[in-house]
């Protein structure tokens, strides 16, 4: 088996490359490429490991014909076009905790630096001025810190601020009252936060809802003399308005680690009074960079080598422990989806995926994803478990999951049923020896078959001599039969033949098979 190939395109701790190699991937570290240069090479890679510099646009994804996974060594994924990645079937993962303590500490460091104007005092002291009377700071004890966003980083900031004897008010529409109590903050609305906070710190992702959350209007609403810290994303604050308010003194100080345009080399804020900044250093500690590098390489190689999915933003998780157990089920599920997709007529707008016995005890999401991936092949060849659920949703397909932990005839079973214009049609399969996928039923007829490669499916009226005639027809066209499977409703009733063949089946053979006495349906299938 060829090794998956990974590109590390941003500066990353060397532990990442080491882990990729140890876990069976080939890895190239090529940083600082322009988008055009990245486009020219990305087609070679199965995995792309990034930090914040690489912008993974729809255009890059179009050129990434082999790409299976993008791993962000960090939290924010606003540099990845996730909808475009999903529609191409590329998993996007991040490392949601590896740099959160570090980033929270940076926010606290910036808050302290603002309160005591440390950067400017440092520069002027070193310049020989000894400007003791120029700097009058403020205490943070007893002051109110307004948190905008109380997720992982916000909660750590809150805990540190409480240790500094500050009061913490948080605005976060998704913060539950219980969690607010747990992390020791008062949940408030944004108006209240703006009216009360002496310091405001932002810890939300950049989304359509949070963009410009500190707009000119909101900054105006903030308490006179407020100090603002942003270690989340540029774009959350209206930078021009912030400059004006630093100049008017309405905002007493601002400390930004992140900018709307990065790298920020000529930002107008640089000239504003009481403004300090760092070049997106929130996550830059040795500890955090080792954490995120190790984690991203482990997650990505786990996916590329074993199929395990952790911290994906566009796909359900699948642990490394679950992945080997689920692998044969996913193969079975995909084949059942593909079989029904190849056999059923008309628009399929309702599908139910039923698991029974052992299969019902497993994580259902990957099984459902695999069935949909198989089924959706009737519409598109570039479909996989990542994009299939999105495609099903886009087509307005109703997907039902049914679990039945009691065993039936089989210890484990997956049944896929679609609603067609001719009524419900279902196929079912099991695993032999916990590993070998087998079809056990088509449209109510019991059969036992391995679905693989090129196959021919025939529905006929059960009659003596029919099997011989099919064999003779294959022989006439030099088509070698690999396996031959039979099933029927009853003696003389509707019967099914499913045979695997080593050669492509020409249309002429299908036409001749259709013309055989008693034949109802003939279909060439492929798996
Ligand atoms: N400066 C740096 O180097 C770093 C920056 N970051 C940034 O920090 C952000 C936050 O990271 P985490 O705390 O780990 O993320 P998280 O997902 O744990 O927390 C984000 C919080 O924002 C809240 N939120 C979402 N929409 C909101 C809205 N409209 N108003 C108020 N709150 C809203 C969410 O409910 C959630 O609680 C990341 O998205 C990333 O962009 C993260 C790491 C390093
Ligand atoms: O990788 C970095 O230095 C930036 C980290 C960051 O912004 C994030 O994790 O969201």
UniProtKB/TrEMBL annotation:
Residues 455-516 form the ACT domain. It catalyses: (R)-2-hydroxyglutarate + NAD(+) = 2-oxoglutarate + NADH + H(+); (2R)-3-phosphoglycerate + NAD(+) = 3-phosphooxypyruvate + NADH + H(+). InterPro entries: ACT-like_dom_sf, ACT_dom, ASB_dom_sf, D-isomer_2_OHA_DH_cat_dom, D-isomer_DH_CS, D-isomer_DH_NAD-bd, NAD(P)-bd_dom_sf, PGDH. Pathway: Amino-acid biosynthesis; L-serine biosynthesis; L-serine from 3-phospho-D-glycerate: step 1/3. Residues 325-442 form the D-3-phosphoglycerate dehydrogenase ASB domain. Keywords: Amino-acid biosynthesis, NAD, Oxidoreductase, Serine biosynthesis. Residues 6-314 form the D-isomer specific 2-hydroxyacid dehydrogenase catalytic domain. Its EC number is 1.1.1.95. Residues 108-282 form the D-isomer specific 2-hydroxyacid dehydrogenase NAD-binding domain. Belongs to the D-isomer specific 2-hydroxyacid dehydrogenase family. Catalyzes the reversible oxidation of 3-phospho-D-glycerate to 3-phosphonooxypyruvate, the first step of the phosphorylated L-serine biosynthesis pathway. Also catalyzes the reversible oxidation of 2-hydroxyglutarate to 2-oxoglutarate. This is D-3-phosphoglycerate dehydrogenase. It comes from Erythrobacter westpacificensis.
């Amino acid at each position: 088996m060829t090794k998956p190939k990974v590109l590390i395109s941003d500066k990353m701790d060397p532990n990442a490359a080491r882990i990729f190699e140890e876990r069976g991937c080939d890895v190239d570290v090529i940083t600082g490429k322009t988008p055009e240069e990245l486009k020219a090479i990305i087609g070679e890679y199965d995995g792309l490991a990034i930090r914040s510099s690489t912008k993974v646009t729809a255009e890059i994804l179009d050129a990434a014909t082999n790409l299976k996974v993008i791993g962000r060594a960090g939290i924010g994924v606003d540099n990845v076009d996730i909808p475009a990645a999903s529609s191409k079937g590329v998993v996007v993962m991040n490392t949601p905790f590896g740099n959160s303590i570090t980033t929270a500490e940076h926010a606290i460091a910036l808050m302290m630096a603002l309160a005591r104007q440390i950067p400017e005092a440092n520069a002027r002291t070193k310049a020989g001025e000894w400007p003791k009377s120029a700097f009058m700071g403020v205490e943070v004890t007893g002051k109110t810190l307004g948190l905008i966003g109380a997720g992982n980083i916000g909660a750590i900031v809150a805990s540190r601020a409480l240790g500094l004897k500050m009061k913490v008010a948080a605005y976060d529409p998704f913060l539950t009252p219980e969690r607010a109590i747990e992390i020791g903050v008062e949940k408030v609305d944004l108006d209240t936060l703006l009216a009360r906070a002496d310091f405001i710190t932002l810890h939300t992702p950049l989304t359509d809802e949070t963009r410009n959350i500190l707009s000119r209007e909101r900054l105006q609403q903030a308490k006179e003399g407020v100090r603002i810290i942003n270690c989340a994303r540029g774009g959350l604050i209206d930078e021009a308005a912030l400059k004006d308010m630093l100049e008017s003194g309405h905002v007493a100080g601002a400390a930004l680690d992140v900018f709307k345009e990065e790298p920020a080399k000529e930002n107008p804020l640089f000239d504003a009074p009481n403004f300090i900044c760092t070049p997106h250093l929130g996550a830059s500690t040795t500890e955090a960079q080792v954490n995120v590098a190790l984690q991203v390489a482990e997650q990505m190689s786990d996916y590329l080598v074993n199929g395990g999915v952790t911290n994906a933003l566009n796909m359900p998780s699948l642990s490394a422990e679950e992945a080997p157990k689920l692998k044969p089920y996913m193969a079975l599920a995909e084949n059942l989806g593909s079989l029904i997709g190849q056999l059923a007529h008309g628009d399929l707008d309702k599908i139910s995926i039923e698991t029974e016995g052992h299969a019902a005890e497993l994580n259902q999401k990957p099984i459902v994803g695999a069935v949909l991936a198989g089924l959706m092949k009737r519409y598109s060849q570039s479909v996989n478990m990542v994009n299939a659920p999105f495609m099903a949703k886009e087509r307005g397909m109703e997907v039902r999951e049914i679990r039945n932990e009691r065993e039936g005839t089989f210890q484990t079973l997956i049944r896929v049923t679609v609603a067609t214009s001719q009524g419900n049609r279902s196929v079912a399969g099991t695993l032999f020896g916990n590993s070998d996928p087998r079809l056990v039923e088509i449209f109510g007829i019991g059969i036992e078959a391995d679905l693989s490669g090129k196959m021919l499916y025939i529905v006929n009226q059960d009659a003596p001599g029919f099997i011989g005639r099919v064999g003779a027809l294959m022989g006439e066209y030099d088509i070698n039969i690999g396996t031959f499977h039979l099933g029927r409703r009853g003696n003389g009733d509707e019967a099914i033949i499913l045979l695997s063949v080593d050669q492509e089946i020409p249309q002429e053979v299908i036409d001749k098979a259709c013309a055989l006495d008693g034949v109802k349906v003939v279909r060439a299938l492929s798996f």
